[in-house]
Amino acid sequence: MARITVEDCIDKFPSRFELVLIASQRARKLYSGETPKIDRDNDKNTVIALREIANLSQTVDEMKENLIQEYETVTLKDEEEENLELDSSENENNDDSDKIESEDSSKQIEEEIKAFTASEDSEIEQQYNIENDTETSQEKLSSDNEESKTSENEESETSL
Predict the structure, then answer these.
(1) Most exposed of 33, 71, 78, 137 (fewest Cβ within 10 Å)?
(2) Which domain holds residue 62?
């Protein structure tokens, strides 16, 4: 049987690159122990791979899909599991952030209460001081009035 070359297989694929990728992938599988789909005829694995492609022992789409699956590092199942893990970790992060936000808001509320209480206390002290001041000033006024009355009385007595 005549040797199969790349030119004999190029009409099966739109580009040489795809052909080389698929042929090399099939040759590696044959080398790793997979059984050939055509007779071996004492040919090397690369020639057998090209002969399989030329004979269309598999459809072009099947060959492309096999190539994609081989180079795929993450399968659909792995990707779905990863997405589920990400979703669950995001939910945990959201729960943690909600806890942090609630702790922050409770701390903020406590600080606001303390500030409000302090301002009320200072207002009460000011009012108390003002009341004390007015009481003291009223006492001073009354005592001043009494003193002035007594001094007037004394002056009037002395003038008499």
Answers:
(1) 33
(2) 6-71
Q: What is the reported pTM?
A: 0.44
- Count of domains observed in the chain: 1
DSSP 56: T
* Residue 2 pLDDT greater than 60, yes or no: no
Question: Does residue 150 fall inside a structural domain?
Answer: no
pLDDT at 149: 61
CA distance 22 to 63: 7
Q: Label residues 99-130 b or e (16+ Cβ within 10 Å = b).
A: eeeeeeeeeeeeeeeeeeeeeeeeeeeeeeee
Q: Which CATH number goes with the domain that contains 43?
A: 3.90.940.10
User: What type of residue is 16?
Assistant: R
Looking at the domain assignment, is residue 160 inside a domain?
A: no
- The pLDDT tens digits of the residues spanning 46-83 come to 888 888 888 888 888 888 888 888 877 766 677 778 88
| Ranges assigned E (strand) in 38-135 | none
